[in-house]
Structure formats: structure tokens, C-alpha cells
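Whiteboard transcription, Tuesday session. T.W. wrote the C-alpha cells on the left side:
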């Protein structure tokens, strides 16, 4: 039986239907959302003794060189070079299975939770963000983001080390704009309203410049924190300048930080020097020293010295093991020293 010959109207309908299907398929492909699951899990075994007269503690700790976390991120192509983007990340404690870094963390996405747009104009996002000031700090010391073993980070952010920087490494209620990178220079601007009724002066803000070109990395960060959580001070201004230079035989780090607390007039100055020296195909020796002095009109405050020494060996692109030693001494208090063996795995 022969096939019927399509009429002109039939051919026109078929063409229209085919065109509609192709357009729908193209629109579907364009609107497709790409989603990734990723993260890092790490833990360490060690003996911890700080310079605060607390007895030595043997621990199995979570994190170590990097705080453990997992996340989901995705994007949707909106056309004309614009994308809708989102990121949801959660800290966790592999030693206990607990969520967050501590019981005070949000039980949900404690590391970040934001949504926004990106394109040729840059990136604009709204939500909970990692502090760009903390990100800049990671780039100019050999122990990176470690809140356990980095001398610069522990003196800046960790309360048990008499931290000088007010505020968390993660900020809530943030509007963040990242400008397009020009000639290796990137600019990040953040603003977080305090959300206090009748008081618009309670807010956090920051401007952060980062230059990355060839072997040189340089940062200049400034932030102002004004929240009810910083009582008795009504706020703080903090400034960080630093650099990292890869000389081949070693990577060299240096940074300078200044903080100034409003009302209480407590000021601090922190200097940090460090290096990362490759000694094998997969291993490097890490060295860092941070020195802080404080000016407190109502108390005699001495100097604070913290030094770190470590060996970090990458068994693969995603898995490394490390040994660390941390020396800590606040003037007028006992000397502390900690050591640990740890492992990290990214996924």
C-alpha cells in the first residue's frame, strides 16, 4: 500500500510543528540548570596546649588544616551571557557527626547560602557568605584557612587564642558584588544591614582588593563591623595587607594587620611571615610566625607570638596527610605547644 502524498497544508503544519519542537528543545537546553555536589572532609589526632593556662588535651578533632564542609551549587543560563547562580554549603564535624563547626552554628547551611546573578558586569549575590576578609587572609599565609594551625588565623579569629578581629569568618544578611577581573585585579564589595529596627547605623561593610598575576598574589582588605554582638565595643575597623610570591624553590608570604575598636579604643597590630618549601614531588614544609601587640588603655597587654611548622604531603590530587606543630605564647602566661597528625580529602 502506497503512502499518502502530503498536502500543502499538511506540509506547512509539519514544518510548523517541527519548528516548534526545535525551539522548545533549544529553550530547554538553554534553561538547563547545572548542579554540583562537592566538599572536603578532614580530621586529625593530636595534643593541644595553648598559652592560656588550660591543661593539655588529647583530641580527635574535626577539620584541622581545613574545616570540613559539603555543598551544592548550580547555575542556569538565562541568555545574553547572564546566569542565575546559587550556593548552599554546610560545615560538619566528622569526629562526632555533628552539623556546623560548633553547637552555636546554624543547623542548616552554616558555611554559605546565597543566590544571585552573574555576567559580563560581574557577580551580585544575596545571603550568607564567607567573609572576603577571611578569604584574603587565607591567600597570604602558608596554612591557608586553618582555624587550628594557622598562626595568623588563630590570632585573628579564635577566641581561645585571644582573637583580635571582631566577627565571624562567615557573615549573615550580605549583599555582595564581585567586579569583573581587570589585569589580574579583582574587587569585592560587601554590605550587611544590621536589621535593627530604628537603627540604620548598625551594619557591616567591607571593600576587598586582590591582585593575582603570574607568581605574585597581593591583597588589601578593609572591613567595618557594627553589630550588637560586639558589646561592650560598638564596633571595629580592621585592615589587612599582604602578599605571596612563588619563587619556585619556595613560596613566600607576608602580611600586616591592624584593628581599632570603637569606644574601648583597643588597638592591635599583627605581623606575619611564612613560607612553603617543596621538598618532594608531593610534599612541602610549611612555616609561619605571627606577632601581635595590643594597645589597651584599661589593661596592661603584652605581646602574643604564635608559630607553626608543618609537613603536608599530597598522596593524590584530592588526598593529603600532614604533620603540624604549633607554638603559642602570650606574654605573662605559660608557653603552649600543640602537635597533630591529620588527613584531608576533597570530593
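and on the right, the sequence the group agreed on:
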Amino acid at each position: 500500500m502506497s503512502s499518502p502524498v502530503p498536502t500543502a497544508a499538511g506540509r506547512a503544519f509539519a514544518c510548523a510543528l517541527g519548528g516548534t519542537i526545535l525551539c522548545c528543545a533549544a529553550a530547554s537546553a538553554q534553561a538547563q540548570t547545572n548542579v554540583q555536589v562537592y566538599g572536603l572532609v578532614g580530621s586529625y589526632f593530636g595534643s593541644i596546649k595553648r598559652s592560656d593556662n588550660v591543661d593539655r588535651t588529647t583530641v580527635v578533632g574535626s577539620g584541622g588544616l581545613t574545616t570540613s564542609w559539603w555543598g551544592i551549587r548550580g547555575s542556569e543560563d538565562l541568555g545574553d551571557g547572564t546566569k542565575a547562580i546559587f550556593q548552599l554549603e554546610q560545615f560538619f564535624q566528622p569526629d562526632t557527626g555533628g552539623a556546623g563547626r560548633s553547637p552555636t552554628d546554624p543547623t542548616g547551611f552554616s558555611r554559605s547560602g546565597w543566590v544571585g546573578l552573574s555576567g559580563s558586569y560581574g557577580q551580585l549575590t544575596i545571603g550568607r557568605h564567607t567573609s572576603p576578609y577571611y578569604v584574603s587572609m587565607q591567600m597570604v599565609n602558608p596554612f591557608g584557612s586553618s582555624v587550628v594551625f594557622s598562626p595568623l588565623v588563630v590570632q585573628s579569629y579564635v577566641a581561645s587564642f585571644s582573637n583580635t578581629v571582631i566577627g565571624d569568618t562567615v557573615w549573615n544578611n550580605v549583599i555582595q558584588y564581585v567586579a569583573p577581573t581587570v589585569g589580574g585585579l579583582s574587587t569585592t564589595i560587601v554590605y550587611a544591614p544590621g536589621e535593627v529596627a530604628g537603627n540604620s547605623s548598625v551594619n557591616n561593610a567591607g571593600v576587598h582588593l586582590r591582585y593575582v598575576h603570574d607568581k605574585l598574589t597581593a591583597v588589601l582588605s578593609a572591613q567595618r563591623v557594627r553589630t550588637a554582638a560586639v558589646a561592650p565595643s560598638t564596633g571595629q575597623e580592621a585592615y589587612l595587607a599582604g602578599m605571596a610570591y612563588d619563587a619556585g624553590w619556595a613560596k613566600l608570604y607576608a602580611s600586616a594587620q591592624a584593628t581599632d575598636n570603637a569606644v574601648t579604643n583597643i588597638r592591635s597590630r599583627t605581623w606575619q611571615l611564612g613560607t612553603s618549601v617543596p621538598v618532594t614531588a608531593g610534599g612541602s614544609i610549611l612555616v609561619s610566625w605571627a606577632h601581635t601587640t595590643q594597645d589597651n588603655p584599661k589593661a596592661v597587654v603584652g605581646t602574643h607570638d604564635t608559630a607553626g611548622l608543618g609537613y603536608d604531603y599530597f598522596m593524590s590530587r584530592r588526598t593529603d596527610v600532614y604533620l603540624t606543630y604549633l607554638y603559642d605564647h602570650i606574654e605573662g602566661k605559660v608557653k603552649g605547644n600543640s602537635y597533630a597528625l591529620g588527613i584531608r580529602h576533597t570530593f
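Someone added at the bottom: The mean pLDDT is 89.
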